[in-house]
Amino acid sequence: MRLGCPRRYPALRPLTLVTTLFFISPVIGWRPWPHNKTNAHDLVFGDSKKFEGSSEFVRLRYHMGPVLTANITVHTIWYGTWERNQKKIIRAFINSISAVDSKHPSVSGWWKTVQLYTDQTGANISRTVRLGMEKNDRFYSHGKSLTRLSIQSVIKSAVTAKSRPLPLNPQSGLYLLLTSADVYVQDFCGQVCGFHYFTFPSIVGYTLPYAWVGNSAKLCPGVCAYPFAVPNYIPGLKPLKSPNGDVGVDGMVSVIAHEIAELATNPLVNAWYAGQDPSFPVEIADLCEGIYGTGGGGSYTGQLFNGEDGTTFNMNGIRRRFLVQWVWNHVVSYCTGPNALDQ
């Protein structure tokens, strides 16, 4: 859930629900936040979560909670106004996670790092990630400004709808809420570009792992769609050309990848994370924010590929290309990706 100069926010623990209900935190990604301030996690982990080769100070541990070992189904909620091609880009990425015939380096090759994580029985994260049912909420049923709690209400509406409700699948289902470019979500752009958590039975009726990711094209592309857009306060830096011709959606893809990887390895915020306090989990994608290729770290993405059309990418999917951040490989204590030059 992060990108650029990372900022972390506490994930809410169930036992503190009443007192901290309005401080639920996301999992995020490297972003060039304008308020680039050092925070506690920068001090604890130093540069280890930003630079490709550093591992000495990282203590990613398993905390005995469940991980997603059964076939994973991503149920998508399209909130707001979406173009057909925008949906196609995101669907293609999700379907590419399990594709076996994509050209190397591939999205499915990226997912192999996530598969290395296991539960207490030794069972690995599922190889299979498939697109499930979808729900359109084109009339903004909960308005164009959402809080973190109202996001759960949107999910409730989708799973309890009288017509074609999303199926309830707490064990292996992920619920992905995607908001269109004209929707503002609490802390969007200023602190987060996406986050994940799980729904509260008191709101939704069930405990369901979910993630939210917003389209930043109108609100803050220089933050949440970086490096396909750059912020005004970084003069002289030229944006890269997005691989699918949609800056906002191409920026969303890496955030979606970030959240799905962390939902698979830490769905209830009690499985794989670094740090002493589960209220502030640093997860497998957080450790590699902003790293997309060999040598990546800080504001440098790492070594990427340039297409014949001038676009920039680092992975191949089903008939499309994507730019997706790397994730932490706990076996070698390193950020890894399928486009690494030493593979």
Automatic annotation (TrEMBL):
The keyword Signal applies. It comes from the Eukaryota. Keywords: Apoplast, Secreted, Signal. Its main location: secreted. One of its GO terms (cellular component) is apoplast. It holds the Pfam family Phi_1. It is found in: Secreted, Extracellular space, Apoplast. Belongs to the EXORDIUM family. This is Protein EXORDIUM-like 3.
